């Protein structure tokens, strides 16, 4: 039977609470579908580690993690101890960039049992994928400050887009759209205001669209696109966006589909030169950490995306189906964010049992 | 009696359809409240002008417009003829920057008679202001392309923030928050990902917050803030954001409050060294232009903001009240976007009559 080696990084805050539930469900799926999971847990990429070492990761992190089949990640960020841009650039954003996880894939789906904040939306009405560029764009670290501390103080930061970087994520998104029944792709832009990088993004997207004549491609400016997620979410199928726009859309989309507490994400290296990383869209949630009430569904669903990536699509689909039936049929076990009185462990256990 | 000199620029597409309705309502208000409006209409800042002159504006536009008390603007953009970034940077964005209209103020309010796409939201539940920085930040035109046409092609664009630029818009927002009953300010950021400019924005906002101890100030990252506009819009009062984030939030907010078709905006030069500019949030809408069905409410409401700025707050409030009562009590005259069968002129006339 297949055996997969998984690096587990719980990180900060509720990461440590939801990851065990993710693992519980992964193990249940492994048992049902006859594959093996070897997991190794790592205590870096968190504020505790930073306090002890002054770094978020050990110097040999590439070698330590590079040989795993995938990384199962909780959340990182504990701003009371270490500023977010330090902890994030020192861990998660480093993985994304240095492991070349250039696709951040985030499904937006209104599940049975979940109430959308939008009027009159039923399960099935909202079902699309956000494909986010994950290594460049607005998330650069080039720039700086001049005339510090004076009235002339000026701060600059570069957005950087490369043909390689833009084309590969667009290609992924067009392939994905082509594989879906609706074959519809929307690219997010802001070429009317951001006058250099965004017209370039449009130019590459238009060129890519010519190569995929079977995909119906259109573009929306990010402002109107955000508005349309609220007004007409049913019209989207695959949405591809730059790093920053993808970040915004992949929180906004899940909010329209009920809650970001259950949204999963996959940081994928499609070339498989390095491991891909799977994490919930939500963060470490300092406000509810330590209380055992965090919603584990985002983590569990991320586990499903990991299995899909590893070549276990049936097990992946089973996990998602289990999530959906528990949310729909066992309202008493859901966590408070979804209106229930369940705990993290109780909800995780219920989903694992269903698998 | 007071006499105000207004430069009128209809621009492209539905701009030319909604501006006359805005003027109709402004004239009604002038009559009722006993002030005079002198309007001069200009045919530049549109695709037609560009076709004839190869520029969006005449060379002496500063002198031509600089002496007016305000600019009443429709919409600009006709991408079939001139690329958006050319038409926008050649007109609207130039006004904002060169007339130092550093505050873009956009009210988000769920009016009576308008249905929010959000469940269970009633008029009064959503009532906040987006204060958008309007001259710098992500909307720079510094940057360029290297290795053009090759696989190494790379495009960069700078975000630029200055202490002057950041502090003045923050100060405006804190003053505004301090003048409102809830005294609550939220600043939008993304300092966990955008690691140079956004931590700077946070730093200046935190420093400004110390000077306004009566204002309850907090921050949200743009991704979660967008999600919370959908999930908990009632919690916002004044939201201050950089140019790009403000752009996104001021389309998303109005969408949550029903439609961007009715949202107004004020591009304000608070120092009054140059005229301020008032325009609807919506654009030129090529898809419905020429059909006489565009919703004029954004334009009319922008007129109200203009009167407020000119020192006619009672007339301004009356226009907003007239909008609200027509939308609420005369569903037959509203335009198709709001579910009615009215025309632009019919809705504008009904509101003017109510004033
Ligand atoms: C047309 C575009 C350049 C403009 C902007 O992004 O500022 C518009 O969306 C707005 O909000 O006024
Ligand atoms: C924590 C933050 C840096 C991160 C991002 O912006 O990428 C998060 O919001 C996400 O979406 O994974």
TrEMBL record, chains A, B:
Cofactor(s) listed in the protein's UniProt record? Mg(2+); Mn(2+)
Q: What is its EC number?
A: 1.1.1.83
SUPFAM superfamilies assigned to the protein according to its UniProt record, in alphabetical order: Isocitrate/Isopropylmalate dehydrogenase-like (SSF53659)
Per its record, the protein catalyses: (R)-malate + NAD(+) = pyruvate + CO2 + NADH
Q: Which GO molecular function entries does the Swiss-Prot or TrEMBL record give?
A: D-malate dehydrogenase (decarboxylating) (NAD+) activity; magnesium ion binding; NAD binding
Where's the Isopropylmalate dehydrogenase-like domain? 5-351
**Keywords noted in UniProt:** Manganese, Metal-binding, NAD, Oxidoreductase
UniProt KW Membrane keyword: no
> Which PROSITE patterns does the record cross-reference, listed alphabetically?
IDH_IMDH
Q: Name one Pfam family in it.
A: Iso_dh
Family affiliation? Belongs to the isocitrate and isopropylmalate dehydrogenases family.
Note the NCBIfam families from the entry: TTC
Q: What is the official name of this protein in its record?
A: D-malate dehydrogenase (decarboxylating)
Naturally occurring in which organism (per UniProt): Nonomuraea turkmeniaca
């Amino acid at each position: 039977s297949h055996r997969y080696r998984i690096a587990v990084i719980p990180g900060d805050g509720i990461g440590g609470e939801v990851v065990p539930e993710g693992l519980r469900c992964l193990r249940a799926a492994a048992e049902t579908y006859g594959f093996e999971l070897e997991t190794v847990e790592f205590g870096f990429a968190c504020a505790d580690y930073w306090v002890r070492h002054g770094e978020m990761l050990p110097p040999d992190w590439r070698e330590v993690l590079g040989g795993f089949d995938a990384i199962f990640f909780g959340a990182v960020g504990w701003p009371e101890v270490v500023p977010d841009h330090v902890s994030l650039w020192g861990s998660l954003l480093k993985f994304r960039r240095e492991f070349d996880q250039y696709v951040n894939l985030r499904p937006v789906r209104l599940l049975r049992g979940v109430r959308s904040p939008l009027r009159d939306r039923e399960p099935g009405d909202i079902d699309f994928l956000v494909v986010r560029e994950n290594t460049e764009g607005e998330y650069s670290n080039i720039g700086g400050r001049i005339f510090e501390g004076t009235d002339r103080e000026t701060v600059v930061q570069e957005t950087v887009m490369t043909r390689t970087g833009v084309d590969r994520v667009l290609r992924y998104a067009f392939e994905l759209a082509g594989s879906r029944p609706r074959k519809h792709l929307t690219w997010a832009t802001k070429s009317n205001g951001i006058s250099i990088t965004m017209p370039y993004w449009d130019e590459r997207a238009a060129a890519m669209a010519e190569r995929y004549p079977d995909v119906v491609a259109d573009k929306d400016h990010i402002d109107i696109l955000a508005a349309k997620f609220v007004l007409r979410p049913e019209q989207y199928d695959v949405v591809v966006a730059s790093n920053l726009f993808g970040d915004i859309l992949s929180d906004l989309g899940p909010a329209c589909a009920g809650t970001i507490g259950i949204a999963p994400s996959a940081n994928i290296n499609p070339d498989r030169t390095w491991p891909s990383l799977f994490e919930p869209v939500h963060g470490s949630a300092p406000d509810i950490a330590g209380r055992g009430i965090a919603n584990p569904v985002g983590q569990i669903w991320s586990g499903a995306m990991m299995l899909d990536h590893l070549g276990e699509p049936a097990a992946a689909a089973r996990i998602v189906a289990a999530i959906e039936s528990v949310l729909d049929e066992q309202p008493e076990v859901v966590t408070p964010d979804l209106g229930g009185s369940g705990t993290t462990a109780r909800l995780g256990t219920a989903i694992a049992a269903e698998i």
